[in-house]
Amino acid sequence: MPLMKLDGTERLGFLIHDAARLMRKRFETLGAAHGLSAAQWRLMVRLVKEEGQTQARLAELLEIEPISVSRLLDRMEESGWVERRQDAGDRRVRMIFPTEKSRKTFQAVKGVAGEVFEQAMAGLSPEERRITIHGLATIVENLSVAEAAAETELTALKGSAA
Predict the structure, then answer these.
(1) N or C: which end of the chain has fewer CB within 10 A?
(2) What pLDDT is recorded for position 33?
(3) Choice between 133 and 61, residue whose per-residue pLDDT is larger
(4) Quick check: 69 pLDDT over 60?
(5) pTM of the predicted model, to two decimals?
(6) Contact 38/27 with Cβ under 8 angstroms?
(7) Secondary-structure class of domain 35-122 per CATH
(8) What's phi and psi for 37, nearest 5 deg?
């Protein structure tokens, strides 16, 4: 493995982690007035953007355990944020949908998110903002491709071992 150049890139992981943590904390502070936890916000946003998901798919999208999603959904359903419906094709499967309350609150969430993003990007020129977003999108794409390749390789190895 090649040695990393000391050009600042050795801090990349820490900087991305800290930026995400601080943005999440700021979002929680500003979003608390709407009565949802950060995990509930994330789930609600996913549902409004991609309604009709299964609990298993939501767990995958949010990268949390299915039992945790189930508990979140229980609390959100009791408070009128989501509703569960049986899948028309498979009665064992329950699909999750946002309620009108979620859809209305989603608009407020977008405003809070915009405020947090603006605070995060303060002091950056429009060009620096564009470059930052492009750089992060490229990092996500690179790592997504690498992850998919690793999963394909692992599947192939498991297949040949059988």
Answers:
(1) N
(2) 80
(3) 133
(4) yes
(5) 0.66
(6) yes
(7) mainly alpha
(8) -75, 170
